[in-house]
Amino acid sequence: VLALNAGQFSSGGAWGWVVREGVERQSPGRGPLAPAVVIDRDGTVRIVPADSIASERASGRVAEAFQSYPALLDGDGVVPEPIRTDGMGVDLQHRDSRLAIGELRDGRILIALTRFEGLGGILDNLPFGLTTPEMAAVMGALGARRAVLLDGGISSQMLVRAGDETHAWRGIRYV
Fold it and tell me: How far is CA 10 from CA 13, 14, 151, in A?
């Protein structure tokens, strides 16, 4: 079992496309760097580019989905230009705890959560860490061909449960 704080949010709740148990709960958001994480009815997990969300909606295969931004890597492992160039709508300087999901070339899914230890444990849960371009570099170095940031900062957290073992990396904000 995996639990994590998924896509981005606004003051009204989740931002972008949300599908739960095969039912679309919220329409897609708009933006070139806003892919969706899709779980098909057969359990396959994929990261779908923003320009392919419409065809996914029509396919009838989607069991679960959420949208997030920004995309860190396109399908060829290339960092999109707005993640490499200042002034294109993405803050490239802000440092924060980061949570990202990536799709490896063999189809496996990779999840990375960055945390920094220091100052006697003070930095463990504080929003201090990588920039968005640095997180793109991490995901590429780990072998992702496609990747997207999930909600980060004080909300970045993850729980993994395998049988009787539970491992949790909690954030300051409970979600």
Answer: 5, 6, 11
